[in-house]
Amino acid sequence: MNIEFNGLGVSNALSLSIAVVVSAVPAISHAQVQTTSLSITESTKQLNQLIESALSSDTARSQYAAQSQAMRESGVASATLMDPKLKVGFGGLPVDSFKFDEDPMTNISVGLMQQFERGATLELNQRKANQQADGVAYQVQVREREVANNITQLWLELGYLQYAESVIKENRRLMLEMEQYAQTNYSIGKSEAQDLLNTQLQVDKLDENLQSNRQMQNRVVAQLSEWLGSEWLNRRSVDSNQAGYQLDWSRLNTLLEQQTNNTQYYALLNQQPMAQIADANISANRTQVEVAEQSYTPQFGFEVMYAYRQADNMMGRRAPDLLSAYLTMDIPLFTDNRQDKNVAAAQYQVGAAQYQKDTLLAQMNAQVNALMSDRVNLTERIERYQERLLPQSKARIEAVERGYQNNTAQFGDVITASTDELALQVELARLITDLNQTNSKLASLLGGFEYQISAPNAQYQEKQ
Are 83 and 117 in contact (CB under 8 A)? Predict the structure, then answer.
């Protein structure tokens, strides 16, 4: 549903239909709803394009993808048997002559040794590496939501500043008309000098507000260049494309409507990338327990050696060559202070990882509840501005204008009334901006963004 808002100027109608997808309020007119929906849709589409462009060139996503792939490759290496060792040498060489054909014990040996890991250690190490790589891969999604939220926050702020600028310009135009009116009345003696001076002062104040507004817009544009690149500054995209301070949050609203509990959002938060990283950490620690348990199994080694002899034996015949084969095995007998402690330490790490996830979920659930509270309060305040404050402000301006024309109100009252309405218009826009920024934070936590982006490239590419 949409909330509609009409803000009226001092003597002209300044209408701007503002829609926020937060609650059900009857629409004012079909034409206004259609125009507003189109504006929100176009603003949301343009923002999503900026987010997708920023993410496609984001080096942090590629960094996490490269780190994840590096862990997977290391896992393959860790799941491979150790390389066999080649042993070459001689034995039984007489030191008085150093001849190989003098003593039958003298031989030239070539051997091969191979060590095997304990039990299923190799397979478990690869599984652990893949689980750790999965955790790093989820960092890509964390980064995506972080960038999307930051850009959305700045985009909404820029839209608010642009709207505030338009309101200030319109009121400045009206104030200049009042200045001309006061100048005419002063020249014919119908008004005092203070009326003209007050009007001129208000024009100067509006000029100062415009300068301050442009300064803040330039700052926001510069901040957006962190993700959109320096070309964003050179292109000055915001000069030709108006930003918006309200967006379409259909996906977020759908997620919230599916909630059966208004204070516990753990089902949605379990799908959050940070929670998935915690799950991957728990799985990796559980695998480490299995790795530690493999230390109770023996470790085997195998060695084969061939000895070539040149001397003759005692019978005058050539001594035969020798072949040796050995099987080695360590026996884990004293496990109290090594194997048992390693397994216990690994089990404690599993518990620590589970506690870490519970803490994370509790923190994020508290953040969601705080944001939902802000969402409700901002919605109520927006309704108050739309249903009471702005209509009362318009009625006040009309009454003061009639009083001034009938010489029952001071000219300063007209200026005060118009200034108050300007403040109300900007305050309402500020509330709507805050509401949308709150929705952006909720979307970051619950997955309410609608951008589409492909997986990052893990291979490093030189920038042109």
Answer: no
Residues 196-254 pLDDT 10s: 888 888 889 899 999 999 999 999 999 999 998 887 777 554 454 578 899 999 999 99
Residue at 126 is within a domain = yes
Report residue 330: phi and psi, to 5°.
-90, 150
Q: What is the DSSP letter of 385?
A: I
CA distance 311 to 105: 8
To the nearest 10 degrees (0 to 180), the angle between helices 411-446 and 121-187 is: 170
Q: pLDDT tens across 364-401, in order?
A: 999 999 999 999 999 999 999 999 999 999 999 899 98
DSSP helix/strand/coil, 237: helix
Angle (deg, nearest 10), helices 30-56 and 121-187 = 130
- Does residue 336 belong to any structural domain of this protein? yes
Total-model pTM: 0.82
The DSSP secondary-structure symbol of 249 reads -
Provide the residue range defining the domain that includes 256.
49-81+117-296+332-446
Tokens standing for 339?
């194997």
* The two structure tokens encoding residue 295: 């230390």
29-50 pLDDT per residue, tens: 222 323 344 588 888 999 999 9
What residue has token string 């030189």?
462
Phi, psi (rounded to 5 degrees) for 319: -65, 135
DSSP 74-120: HHHHHTSPPPPEEEEEEE---TTT--TTS-TT-EEEEEEEEE--STT
The amino acid that residue 149 corresponds to is: N
Q: Is the dihedral of CA 420, 425, 426, 430 positive or negative?
A: positive
CATH label of the domain that carries residue 197:
1.20.1600.10
